[in-house]
Amino acid sequence: MSVALRETGTRTPVRAPAPARPLRYVLVVAGLILALAAAATASLALGSVRIPPGQVLDALTGRAGPSPYRTIVLDVRLPRVLLGAVVGAGLAVVGAVLQALVRNRLADPFLLGISSGASAGAVLVLVVGGGAGLVGGVTTTLALPAGAFVGALLSLVLVYGLARRGGTLTSTRLVLAGVAVSYILSALATLLLVVAGRPEQFQEAMYWSLGGLGSARWDTLALPAAVLALGVGVLLTLARPLDLLLVGEEQATVLGLDTARFRAAVFVLASLVTAVMVAASGAVGFVGLMAPHAARLAVGAPHRRLLPVAALGGALALVLADLGARTVAAPQDIPVGVLTALTGGPFLLWLMRRRPGSEGAAL
Description:
- This protein has 14 helices and two strands, in the order ββαααααααααααααα.
- The protein has helices at 22-45, 53-61, 68-101, 114-131, 138-163, 171-196, 199-209, 222-237, 239-247, 249-254, 259-281, 287-299, 303-327, 336-353, and strands spanning 4-6, 13-15.
- It has a two-stranded antiparallel ribbon.
- β1 and β2 (13-15) form a beta hairpin.
């Protein structure tokens, strides 16, 4: 698809990149799969305890007998690597979809306040539910994502309503509204923890709010993996309507798309995916901003090709970020959200300062 686009509220024409040729697409997907496998292997081998690659392979194939290496690989690092891949893929796909829904290249679950809304909802469940003795075990597994989902959905509706004025939506208003709501909800979550008078929960929740995969276990993987599979599967079936939104709202309506109902339904789905990912890993920012942009540069804008590549790119980015978080200051475990912010912040500044005429590569 090579059509002229115009970002709402700006004078900048946005031209979508042409789709990648089949051979190039196959090469990009194959390259990302190989890079993800290499990053996962490195993540299993490196850390506060270095494990020889041969021992990692023996543990994965079941040839290793009971040993500390086997326990570290299978029970500690492998769940963490898999959760990082799932969360990274989920946030990247949500970012790609949000950028199409609001036709804004700066859209991202973190910048739009969705991640902070999910965090605030999860903290509210921890404080209120924990105080009432309702949170624990399996109940926590379901209650936290439910609270995060409500918080994510409310924050998205609030940001979108604040940013939209007179039927138009500009990049500046969207980002400002998202950042403002994000700060307010983060402050609200902190206030809840302080008022609740649970210092032990405060430190743990603050670390979690910065984003981290240290709590990954096999029993916490099932829900994020299932929601990711469901979300990506549904969104792939909606690839054509998402492409129509890129062309323009009026054109999409003429072609038979009910844009209001479609946006509402996809917003709910995006909030659900974001909430489950945040409940599992905390608010990890900027993966949903960077991965879709890189994917568009590689394979173009059509969503049937974009979404799988964005998912692979997001998974690769977060697995590498988590590897850095565990090794840069070992044995200290840095919150992975700190590293994604250190790379994503400069990327956002670069994106905002790009020459208007070069925006086509971004959307």
